[in-house]
Amino acid sequence: MPKYYQNYMDELESEAIFVLREVSAEFQNPTILFSGGKDSIVLTHLAKKAFYPAKIPFSLLHIDTGHNFPETMAFRDQMVQKLSVNLLVGSVQEAIKKGRVEEETGKNASRNLLQIATLLDAIEANQLDCAIGGGRRDEEKSRAKERFFSHRDDFGQWTPKNQRPELWNLFNANMNQGEHFRVFPISNWTEMDVWTYILRENIEIPSLYFAHERQVVLRNNCLIPVSEYLTSAENEKILTKKVRFRTLGDITISGAIESDADTLVKIVIEVAGMRETERGNRADDKRSETAMEDRKKEGYF
Amino acid sequence: MEIDKNQLLRFTTAGSVDDGKSTLIGRLLYDSKSIFEDQLSNLEKISKRKGFDNIDLAMLTDGLRDEREQGITIDVAYRYFTTPKRKFIIADTPGHLQYTRNMVTGASTANVAIVLIDARNGVAEQTKRHSFIASLLQISHIIVCVNKMDLVDYKEAIFDAIVQDYEELSSKMMIKDVRYIPISALNGDNVVNRSEKMDWYQNAPLLHTLETLHISSDFNKVDARFPVQTVIRPQSIGFPDFRGYAGRIAGGIFRKGDAVTILPSGLTSTIATINKYDELLEEAFVDMSVVISLEDDIDVGRGDMIVKTNNCPVVTQDITAMICWLHNNPAKPNAKYIIKHTTNEQKAIIKQVLYKVDIDTLKRNETDTELSMNAICKIQLRTTQPLYIDSYFKNRTTGSFILIDSFTNETVAAGMIVLP
Prior knowledge:
Chain A is 31% helix and 16% strand. By secondary structure, chain A is of the alpha/beta class. Chain A starts with 7 loop residues before the first helix and ends with a helix.
């Protein structure tokens, strides 16, 4: 007898594809927030499947902190070409030059918060009415309260206490001029689901996710990669270790983990046995107990 | 774990403020080893700072600043865990009176509802309210967890009395499948591991029950419904003439060659292809996102519905429904709203409120018919164009809708269609 139910991976895929198709139908000018990280790559892959054989009906928006892994940039450009989609870039460097935002200073300085203004400026400048993000509810506690269709007011702000109720699969995309939506199609996926899906679909990802030798410094229990943007303190020792990244963001705050996993299968096995959350290595989340919620209210990814 | 077999189970938890709902979820995550070490050490730190002896597992689900400060859950929180048998999504919903809308939200997608009862207090007003909402939203399975058994010396008689009270309550509602489990979320009795203190309880602990509940027959496999989301027209060199309809199957099974009718036009055709990405399928069933193409070149667009010709939904502008009002501002008399039903959006006017349900007594009130926050009422609507509907009892997707205020854009009501 045939089984008339989907396994959980197909169910999650169907749900994400449904959401992406709702976005294309409900918004005039939607974009995918593309960081070059695995979640945004999976999102783009899902968009490819959702609209096949037509092209992806979204642009990709990269908020470029200027502190990039060269591998991510190469990967991004190659992907954009392959899918023939339009790439939009919001540059933090430009925003600093124009005096829109001010650079943090000191050893733990990061451009993380500067991304908020840059993102909101890019949304306004490109007249985007929807930014599709790879955010997942399992990532962080304030994300657990996020909707699939998340309304942002005309200042780009999120009010977690007063969100629209979201029932069944009926998404309310109505809004006023100047407001926008953030939509999270893979809300219900976990880190493990993302890796299982990457393996199942054989999705290409940047080499940084696989174990490789790299120079790092140990800071706040994170292995931060040595790069031209890293201001190292005098007593910090540069170590060479076999590492890989669990999340990719700005090079100055993406912590690596020691690992020998150099194939997708090994990564999936490693993730299955992980005892720390993936954002545990993100210096940006370590600032305070509610660091993510506070950033999200202002308009963060 | 084998991904090609394992199902997804969505459940919701409901309980009064202090029934230990967040603790139960924390316990499920903790004992199924779904909590990471950094989350745990963080919890230890906070619990110590607050002066607790044990880790406060409730802290795991209270994510927002206000929730942590006030020690209450304000909004639906979604949690995830996986066992070798299933993947679970938990909608943890607040038990406060003013947040009924969140409970309805969490219940709308759930296969199972866990109703928590404090063993010391028995069936309470909130229990009634939660159970009524679970039955209203047609959750197929209810698991009643009688919690805090440790505080009543694990006495069987207390459990039995609560079971009896609940049986009486649920007999007045449309609840298909109820199970009862005596637990202590705080100590972990009968949550993941079998309790050593209640050998009088012979059935499975909670997690095992969740892992083995049969849910595949809960979905409607009879009435084939395909609401069209968008039209796929690549107009590319490889696909110059391709015209496909993208959507997620809302009921039943579609097969290549099926005779279909397009609503609202009533035009008929035959299914030429069913695509899932570049894969051609012979058949597709409920919940699958696919692209369907037809043999005939007819006009089909977003908001239309493809159905099997021999099994059509009701096409009507007059709709009777149970609704839950979700907004602080009550409905204005004869107010017009946007109605969103599947992928179709129309204008609708509330013609009449037939009665309000008093959820404490479960009686109908025909004199107080104000549609105010948390009110559950039976109403009559008229829409500007026909909708293609099924009863919510038969199909949760084609039987549900939301109302949107066209001035504030807020979602103000959730509706469940009733057919005579």
